[in-house]
Amino acid sequence: MTTSAGRGSLDGAGAAAASAVASRPALLEAREITKHFPAGRGGAVVHAVDGVSLALPSGRITAIVGESGSGKSTLARLFARLLKPTSGQLLLDGDPAPPGRGGRRRYAQQVQMVLQDPFASLNPVHDVRYHLTRPLKVHGLGTTGSLDETLAGLLERVALTPPERFLRKYPHELSGGQRQRVAIARALAVRPRVLLADEPVSMLDVSIRLGILNLLAGLRENEGMTILYITHDIASARYLADEIAVMYAGRLVESAPAISVTDRPAHPYTQLLLSAAPDPDRPEPAPVSGRGSVPSLLTPPPGCRFHPRCPHAMEICSQLPPPPAEVAPGHVSACWLHVPERPAGTVAPAERRHDGPPTRLADDPSHQQGRPTRPALRRSPFPRPRHGQSKEAGDEPAGHNGV
Amino acid sequence: MTGQGAPGRPGPLIEVRGLRVDYGLGPDAVHAVIDADLTLLSGTVLGLAGESGSGKSTLAYAMTRLLRAPGIITGGQVLLHGGTGSPAEAGTINLLAADEGQLRELRWSHIAVVMQSAMHALNPVVTIGAQLTDVLAAHRVRMDKTERRERAAFLLEMVGISADNLRRYPHQLSGGMRQRVMIAMALALEPAVVIMDEPTTALDVVTQREILTELADLQRELSFAVLFITHDLSLLVELADSIAVMYAGRLLEQAAAADLYRAPRHPYTLGLLRSFPPLHGPSRPLTGIPGSPPDLRTPPPGCPFHPRCGFAMDICRTEMPPAFSTGAGGGRSATCWLQDRAHEVPAELAMAGPGSGPGAGPGPGGTRPAQAPLTDAVQPAGAAALPGPAAGLPEGGASLADPAAVPPGGGASLPDAASTTRATGPVS
After folding, report:
1. Integer Cα distance of A289 and A313 in angstroms
2. Which pTM value belongs to this model?
3. What is the domain extent for residue B410?
4. Looking at the structure, do residues A305 and A347 belong to the same domain, yes or no?
5. A260 and A352 share a domain?
């Protein structure tokens, strides 16, 4: 995924980073996919997803991480063809997704979706049996062997055992975790190759989330299922996924193997996201840089969409959207900091030693000017007492550059 | 967020003793809170962690007498001790016996509440300014209109919102700003206690972090006490001084935050801690907790956690354990038969905590022990080139490595501790 994540725009930009080839073939791929929603009068549009290229390698779990409004769910719906893209392409096995009603049905049999809220996604007036039989009927899958066996097999795959105890149950008789398992079984009924899971655990209690995540991991492990895992929780993405793609304001900002993203985040937004995530192992609260909020998607900022919040913003960031740049093999970041040759006349920030690939930036002669000043972390109407052991003590020199 | 700003040694501000809350009457009553004992020290942050339906919000609402029918308080005491800087008279008052007049006196000016959903807690057809001044008009009758406006503007600025927003309506603010307005409103009368019921659950992580940082600063500067209710235990470990873990209406474990995290004493706490995937270190399979929380209409006999507990014994299935004191200084407790000193405690539940050494005393009162950056040891070598947040760890904070912090004999189980909790210790 990581290399092809930026393939489309890399080709357009003529960059050379596309040389690395994804180790596994992409089962499902979005190329430069864009979705704009009309908003109000005067032809205004919400730029929900803008030019995102993402490939789901076969038999891998790819996570999309982002805050609300980043476009991650819209992207999932585009993958599921519940939404028609404004522009861009969906490729299944390298071929354009088949058009027309019949084509959509064939597509849906291969690509199934699990929704966020199992309290809403199951019909309260139907039992589990109905929920699982329905997709079989819709897709005209004659069940080899008896229907009961098929249904029992499905329930066993999602660890709802013994199956006969669950087939006659109604959603209200099931716990949240069991409901989500039924929703997953329903998606599995048509034997899809791709599962799109849109925040499958965010509505569930903490103690049962891992059960669902482990179930998804098992599907990948045992059946080679290709899974897209949408989440706002970067820790769970690190746990479950092979690759993580980070979205911000409708754009893909970084993609890499999961551990690389969390351990060596390259993009300032990913760094912000990680420093904000709850982490009991952190000895001190991490200084969070990049205040402010997600921009309006009606009028997204020009250039890089993160630049109004970015502590490292340069002049060029407000002018041109950064092309994806490879910061390590398979690790792509859409940030001007990581672009070796920037267009002439742009200004680089000073002291990039701790943030980016050092060699590419240190020799930039123009880096003395335009150094961004770190914004005050917060303003307070109170005088700041300097406690001997207060949290501020020592956190400046401790070196949190870039985080 | 420690209570360093509080003058002197923090004393108890609110003591909950044997609180019981039912929903409904007679044999069909659901016992939502059972025999809850809880102490909130002044100027500290007490975290109340639990899953949905564990009774954590019910407990908070019962404490403040905000509980609505069909909720009924069936027993116990909630003692409020006169705090500092409050108009309430010094002395102790039992909130459960207080009449409406007394409650009106105490609410907001002494105990304020921040609700979970700021969208629903704010009136959508009234401006922010009017809602803020309304509080002052009701409780500070001697303030005139100009003073109220000024105070409202000050409060908004205090939580990082420009005073221009006084004339705006809630829908014109973002979710994070609305939650800040809620916090400003709660602090309007300088209460001694602020009860926060999942104040950041609906917010994005970055906004959540901003608000919590600001809250920590405010708490240090104004030294109010906080009862912070959330389902996110990993957040509490960072935020709170001490933590109480609730399950099926019962408080199962209470300890200083660092102790609870490093050395849980109750199997449920251990399971919860193992339910949060770590942000650092090698990936290893986590199990979560099998099964799901019980239906409180038909609670299991004995310990409510026994059907999901990997350590369940015969006695757990029939008898509810009392709260056993487990800390050396008596500062922590666990409601589990494993801790009754007659049973052998599994290694996972007998780890030495950072604050469990002699002299560490009850966690909530003392300075919070620094958490050792265990992750340093497993930082990948390449981390220096492209530092993430983890690479910004300050140096020299290795308090766990300090032999004085670990009681003799406890050190042996330390590697175990690191491997079984979310900590990614020098083992592996």
Report:
1. 12
2. 0.78
3. 245-382+403-420
4. yes
5. yes
User: Do the domain assignments include residue A393?
Assistant: no
- The answer to whether residue A287 neighbours chain B at the CB level (below 8 Å) is yes
A240 plus A145 within the same structural domain: no
Question: What count of other Cβ atoms lies within 10 Å of the Cβ of residue B380?
Answer: 17
Among all chains, which residue has been given the structure tokens 């972090």?
Answer: B209
Show the beta-strand stretches assigned E in A201-295. Answer: 226-231, 243-248, 251-257
Query: Encoding tokens for residue A31?
Result: 């190329």
Question: Which of 319-378 (A) contact B at CB < 8 A?
Answer: 327-328, 354-358, 377-378
Task: Domain count for chain B, please give it.
Answer: 2
Cα separation, B184 vs B82, whole angstroms? 23
Look at residue A386 and tell me if it is in a domain: no
Give per-residue pLDDT as tens, B236-266: 998 999 999 999 999 999 999 999 999 999 9
Q: Estimate to the nearest angstrom the gap between the alpha carbon of B203 and the chain centroid.
A: 18
pLDDT tens across A227-240, in order? 999 999 999 999 99
Distance from the Cα of B270 to chain A's closest Cα (Å) equals 11
Q: In angstroms, rounded to a whole number, what is the distance separating the alpha carbons of residues A375 and B160?
A: 14
CB contact under 8 A, A276 and B209: yes
CA–CA gap between residue A161 and residue B36 (Å, rounded) = 36
- Which structural domain, as residue segments, surrounds residue A143? 125-186
- List Cβ neighbours of A43 (8 Å cut-off, separation of 6 or more): none
* A286 and B CB contact within 8 Å: yes
Nearest chain A residue to B367, by CA: A389
Partner residue opposite B382 with nearest CB, options A264, A272, A279: A264
A207, A289, A359, A384, best to mutate vs chain B, most B CBs in 10 Å: A207
Q: Is A177 on the interface with B (CB under 8 A)?
A: yes
Q: What are phi and psi of A244, to 5 degrees?
A: -125, 135
